[in-house]
Task: structure prediction
Amino acid sequence: MSFEQQLDIYLRARFTLVVLVTPEEERVLHTIKTVCERTNRPCLTWDVADNFQWLTAVDGVVPAAKDPINALEHIDKAQDDAVYVLKDFHDCWNNLQTKRKLRSVVQRLKYTKKSILAICPSHKIPAELKEEAVVIDFPHPTATELEGVLNRIARAPGVKVNLTKLGREKLVQAALGLTATQAQRVFARAVVTNGVLDDRDISLVTEEKKQIIRESEALEYYEVTESPDDVGGLDILKDWLRLRERAFTQEARDYGLPSPKGIALIGIPGTGKSLTAKMIGALWRLPLLRLDVGSLFGSLIGESEERARRALQVAGMVAPCVVWIDEMEKALAHGGQDAGTSTRVFGSILTWMQEKTAPCFVVATANDISTLPPELLRKGRFDEIFFLDLPTLAERREIFSVHLRKRKRLPQDFDVGQLARDTDGYVGAEIEQAIIDAMYIGFNASREFTTADIAAAVKRQVPLSSSQREAIDGLRDWLHSGRAQSASFPEKEEA
Result:
């Protein structure tokens, strides 16, 4: 159902107070005008600067009302069955008298065909009005609407356009998630910067989108460069991901495949959960957004829930994308000492994961499964739950090779096989640190580091598998009880 259809139903059902949440006042007013003109409903707007103004083309006297109380009194006494749009009224209803007046008027309008539409930028409405109001999110522009914005810019005098058909499609796709005003601004900036609209402007649109994501306070846009070759081992997980590499294409939709929901990566710290999340974004060529659960919590009442709602809404606007929820157990780290805020935030995340329709692929990582509620890991929430165990011998050999190549060294110059055998029980992060420690030894001795330097660095480390043996044994028992799929093939005995 489109927003216009939804609004028309609410007006026909005589909903007396509808709060439209959006920063796009101009665009939502155009939509309201379209609905009212199509259904022959007179419509007026009111604000503290211009008072009452006709939104639809209706001849009649414009009532005088210079303050919100007078405006509400006119709406209450008016004989015509009109739609009244209150602009910036969220600044007025914090006043006790205005709030009480609005509540009384809304209750009396139930017996009329009049409706009040209040436009505001957030979901924060007084508790007294929540029972009276219906809150609707005004959706961001669709690809078709953004293409219309692009076409208006392209038709402007003096604007040169050198976009291929594919380039135009990618430019509009990159702009998804921006408001119409933001898209118009960035398209215009591209014209001024380069003197022409062409495929190079996709990066400008992406930069604008990054700024919008940063403003959500809890989301971070990651530049992804990692490939599957940068992640040692985890072959079962890699095969699973490659099988779904084309899952977000229109071809997959036409075949009847649903968009993948996401995966949970549970396991030992340092085994590559975060690196895997980055690898997925690069493999599927999708934006990677990291949701910092700790940043969701604010000091004001309702602030945490509002941040969570805004962050998840932004993720939906940017879709298709990969949403990386790192160390998800942090969402419940407050242990019930925050008047239930962490539980409500966590609940909103779970609800979004279950009900989202936007193609957002969730990658949730966790180290401590003991704090996670059972409902998080049940089927339907994720497509699959993978456990990242201590790397096998073959994986350790591959991890050594990966990190040596990252530092512009040839793996064949080192005894990678012996190093892999010496690091039984070491995770990938510990292997990487051993190589870095060895490089410091060689650098300070003004020579190349050697296998012996790496072996010495390994011996100085105390791996997690020893220092936290009980916790890691508990995690591995969780895997062996059949609650998750191993991300790696079983270790084979060496001949």
Remarks:
- The chain has a mean pLDDT of 86.
- Residues 428-444 form the longest helix (17 residues).
- The radius of gyration is 28 Å.
- The CA atoms of residues 37 and 56 lie 7 Å apart.
